[in-house]
Every structure is written in C-alpha cells, then in structure tokens.
C-alpha cells in the first residue's frame, strides 16, 4: 500500500477524555514522539485515527508481536522476478511520506527491535537503514507514536526506560461514566438508558480487576455488547457473549460476571 492510501478522509468519531488533543498537537508541532498509555479498548487507536485526520497526515499502523524484527519495520531485500529489490517496511514508508507511524503494543516487540526506533525518537530524527547503507532523515511532518498497556504488569513486558524516556506520554483512561455512555450509545446505536446500564455493568467488572479478572470490560467490549443489543439480542446474552466470555474462561468468574449483568438487566 502507498502512504496516500492511509490518509483518513472522513472525520473519525472521537470524544476527547482530557487534554490529549492539545498535548498531541503541541508534541507534534515540536517533533516529539508520543507514547499512549492505557488499557486495551480504551480508545487509543481511535484517537490516533482522529489525530491523523486532524493533522492531515497518512497513518501507518503496525501491531507489534514477539516475532516482529527490525527488518519488518525498516525493510528488506526481496527477490522479485530474478532481481533483488529493496522493499521499505512500514516505518521507512511512514518516514519517507512524512506521515504518522503508530506502533501498537510496542512491548510485544522484541527488545532489539525496539532499539531501531531510538534514533528516530530523539533529536536526531533519523532512521538508520543498515542493510541499505542509508540514513533516512525524517521530515518535520513525520511523527512516531507508540502504545503500551501498563496494566500487563510484568517485568518481561515492561518498556525499557531508555525507550520510554524519549517519548511524551499521554495517559488515556476509560472515559467518565457520562461520556462513556454517550460513546457507547453513539457507536452501537442504542438508546441512552441501555448505554447507561452497560456502563454500570462495566464499572462492576472493573471493580473485579485483580480479584479474578485481569481487566474489566473496556469501552470496546461495551460497544460490542451494544451492537448485539441493537441487533436484537437480549442484553444479558449480549453481555455474556461480548463481555464476560471475552474477559475470562474461568467458570466461577464467568458465573459471577453473568450474575452481575442479570442483576442489572
Ligand atoms: P485501543 O486502541 O485502546 O485498544 P480502540 O481505539 O480500538 O482501543 O477503541 C475501541 C472502541 O471503543 C473504538 O472502536 C470506539 O468504538 C470506542 N471508543 C473508545 N474510546 C472512544 C472515544 N474517546 N471516542 C469515540 N469512541 C471511542
């Protein structure tokens, strides 16, 4: 795909939860890289889409995983029709296009992979392309953003200090109840009362975090349940399928979470 294919033409629906838009814009204007912290499903990806649209930049997103190598990001030589050609990876494409590169769940990537972003994430703003023998300078419009979920408390999965200290951090949390209700109603196309109940249910599950659940229901899961409700599924069933089953496989926990939704709906 060409970078222009990643330009977001229509304004994505995004409700700000704090001053994240202003801080992002200021960091972008000063060429500082951005770290989004927050639990999965709290709106980080939507926020990036919104900012890319607002700043009129191409958005290139990479979902990081433990097999991700630096070549996957930077590029590699490939044999095509008997010839060896260089193919840019997504990070190099974003740098060349002066777009926004969003590395989602950066801690999933191998530590040696993370190191390739260091020269891009400080004053140098360059991408060393060792195999090509090139140093790619990032234009002013280029922006590097990464996300990380501090909830997965694990020494193995923690972001290296030398990496995180290069970034301006923005913490995105779940929106407050009234705002989350508005988002769920809008995204799932359900009425305000149904959305309010789903948010109440979410708060109950969030209180179980650390007491049998690793995470409570995220905004994303509420939107999923809401969409099932909008499609005619009974709320208790929707909560079970879209939320409880997504949160745990433990039969006792499942029963407890299902009981909570039965008490509400
Ligand atoms: P993350 O990237 O943090 O895992 P997403 O950005 O994919 O989460 O958010 C999941 C869903 O929740 C979105 O698709 C959207 O429907 C909804 N959502 C969460 N926060 C917001 C917000 N502030 N404004 C609009 N929609 C939101």
UniProtKB/TrEMBL annotation:
<feature type="domain" description="ATPase dynein-related AAA">
    <location>
        <begin position="33"/>
        <end position="167"/>
    </location>
</feature>
<dbReference type="Pfam" id="PF08406">
    <property type="entry name" value="CbbQ_C"/>
</dbReference>
<dbReference type="InterPro" id="IPR050764">
    <property type="entry name" value="CbbQ/NirQ/NorQ/GpvN"/>
</dbReference>
<comment type="similarity">
    <text>Belongs to the CbbQ/NirQ/NorQ/GpvN family.</text>
</comment>
<dbReference type="InterPro" id="IPR027417">
    <property type="entry name" value="P-loop_NTPase"/>
</dbReference>
<dbReference type="Pfam" id="PF07728">
    <property type="entry name" value="AAA_5"/>
</dbReference>
<keyword id="KW-0067">ATP-binding</keyword>
<dbReference type="InterPro" id="IPR011704">
    <property type="entry name" value="ATPase_dyneun-rel_AAA"/>
</dbReference>
<protein>
    <submittedName>
        <fullName>AAA family ATPase</fullName>
    </submittedName>
</protein>
<dbReference type="InterPro" id="IPR013615">
    <property type="entry name" value="CbbQ_C"/>
</dbReference>
<keyword id="KW-0547">Nucleotide-binding</keyword>
<feature type="domain" description="CbbQ/NirQ/NorQ C-terminal">
    <location>
        <begin position="180"/>
        <end position="262"/>
    </location>
</feature>
């Amino acid at each position: 795909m060409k970078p222009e294919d990643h330009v977001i033409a229509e304004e994505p629906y995004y409700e700000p939860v704090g001053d994240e838009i202003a801080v992002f814009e200021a960091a972008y204007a000063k060429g500082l890289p951005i770290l989004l912290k927050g639990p999965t499903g709290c709106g980080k990806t939507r926020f990036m889409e919104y900012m890319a649209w607002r700043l009129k930049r191409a958005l290139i997103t990479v979902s990081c995983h433990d097999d991700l190598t630096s070549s996957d990001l930077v590029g590699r030589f490939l044999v095509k029709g008997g010839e060896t050609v260089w193919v840019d990876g997504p990070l190099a494409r974003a740098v060349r296009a002066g777009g926004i590169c969003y590395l989602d769940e950066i801690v999933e990537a191998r530590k040696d992979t993370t190191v390739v972003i260091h020269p891009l994430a400080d004053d140098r703003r360059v991408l060393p392309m060792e195999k090509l023998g090139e140093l790619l300078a990032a234009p002013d419009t280029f922006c590097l953003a990464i996300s990380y979920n501090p909830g997965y408390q694990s020494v193995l999965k923690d972001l290296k200090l030398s990496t995180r200290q290069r970034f301006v951090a923005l913490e995105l949390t779940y929106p407050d109840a009234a705002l989350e209700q508005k988002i769920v109603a809008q995204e799932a196309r359900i009425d305000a009362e149904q959305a309010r109940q789903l948010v109440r249910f979410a708060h109950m599950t969030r209180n179980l975090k650390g007491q049998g659940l690793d995470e409570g229901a995220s905004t994303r899961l509420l939107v999923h349940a809401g969409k099932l409700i909008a499609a005619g599924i009974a709320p208790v069933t929707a909560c079970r399928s879209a939320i409880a089953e997504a949160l745990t496989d433990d039969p006792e926990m499942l029963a407890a979470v299902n009981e909570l939704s039965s008490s509400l709906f």
